[in-house]
Each structure stands twice: as C-alpha cells, then as structure tokens.
C-alpha cells in the first residue's frame, strides 16, 4: 500500500538498537512524505557507482551538486533518506564529485543543524581536509562558514590542522595560500586571544614571508587585524608580545625586504597610530 508507505515515520531509535536491516527495513528508512517517493527513489538510484560507470560518468557530479537542494526540500527530519547517498558520493572515485560536495558542505550544515553536522558531516569534512588540493580548496574557501556552526570545543580541534593548509600538492599554487590568509582574517572572530597567538600567529608570519606578493599583501592585513584583535582583548600581554616579535622579526631585519614588510604592516589601517595615539 503506497499511501501507508508514504506516511511511514522513520524512528531514529530503531537505528541505535538494530544495526542490521532487512531489505524491507532498508527501503522504509528512505521513505518520506514531502515529495513523491518515486522521484526520490529515482534520484537515489542515480548515485549508484555502477550506474555512473555504465550510463553517464557525469551523473554522480550532478547528483552531488543537487544534494543540498534535495536536503533543503526534504528537511532535516528526513536526512536519514539521504545520509547513505551523501556518504557514497563523498567517497566517490572521481575527485570532481568530492570537490562539488566540498564546496557545498557548509550550506548542508546550515540545513541540518549542529547535531547532525557534528555526527554526520564532520567526519566527511575531515576526509576532505586530507584530499587532493582540488577538493581541499572547497572546504578552505568556506572554512569560516563551516567552523562557525560547530561548538567551541569541536571548533578548537581544527586549530591543530590549520598549519597543514600551508602544504599543497603544488608549491606554485599560491592562490591556495592567499585563500588561507583570507579565511584566517575571518577566523579571528571565532577564537580567543590565546588561540590566536598560539596557533594563528605562526601561520600569519609564515604567510608574510611568502614568495608571492599577492599572498604577502593579504597577510599584512591579517597581521594588522590580529594585532587589533589582541589589543581589544582583556589580556594585553599577547599584543605586547606580538608587537615585540614584529619589531624583532621585520623592523630590525637585516634584509630590506623584511623592513619593508614591517612598513607595509604598519601602513594597513595606520596600525600603530590607531593603537598608541
């Protein structure tokens, strides 16, 4: 009876008590009453890896592109219908499919909410962080958008991994490092003064010495905003230590390029005039 099937209500407690499902139970776990079930079944069938190899090699990529829209239509209460499909696409052999999901994972996190994001999306997000640069750039471009949705303790875990973004498959991929600097500016609002000083400061100084001028210019703004953020914090010792390090590392540098870096950092928003006038 299709009517009774469409109104089947998925019970999450069943999943926790029984890890093995019969074909009938597996089918019911993907039943909802928002859209015609036949339409959803057709969408889910298109993500079958075997079908992608025999019918259309691009079909999985199109499904990945549409998945946030499908999730929004079904609502977070019906995420159980898409969870397996999402995990299948996230582990697809084609990097273009994984890249598509990486660029939209922050949008999916907004749809699902913090609990489902922490349980189902964070593991996928962690996998993308270790993927090819073509996939990593997707999560990097929206790193702030995703991390701000996590609880503070979970968000702090990624402080240890930010340094890894400095390493790329191709060292000439300077746009990757430029995007990292842009994201770090936004991340300053998500972390405490100590976290900024301990974890973000070393990355910022490394970017200030980058070989590509475009990366350095963004990094000058990053350091400027970092000083401003630490100055506004209740603990003033961090900003004093940071200023002393700027003077020692750049202002008194034996190379003219280092001294020039110091001038450029000061130039951004007239940093020193703002702080010490």
Describe this structure as you would to a colleague.
The chain has 277 residues and is mostly helical. The chain has helices at 2-6, 12-17, 23-28, 37-45, 49-54, 59-74, 83-90, 95-112, 114-129, 133-141, 143-147, 152-156, 174-187, 193-208, 213-232, 237-251, 256-267, 271-276. The chain has two domains: 32-149, Alpha Horseshoe (Leucine-rich Repeat Variant); 168-276. α8 packs antiparallel against α9 (114-129) and α16 crosses α17 (256-267). The radius of gyration is 24 Å and the shape is elongated. The termini are far apart. The model is unreliable at 1-21 (pLDDT under 50). Keywords: Repeat.
Q: What's the structural blueprint in terms of helices and strands?
A:
Elements: H1 2-6, H2 12-17, H3 23-28, H4 37-45, H5 49-54, H6 59-74, H7 83-90, H8 95-112, H9 114-129, H10 133-141, H11 143-147, H12 152-156, H13 174-187, H14 193-208, H15 213-232, H16 237-251, H17 256-267, H18 271-276
GO molecular function, one term: protein phosphatase regulator activity
Region (Disordered): 11-30
InterPro entries: ARM-like, ARM-type_fold, PP2A_Regulatory_Subunit_A
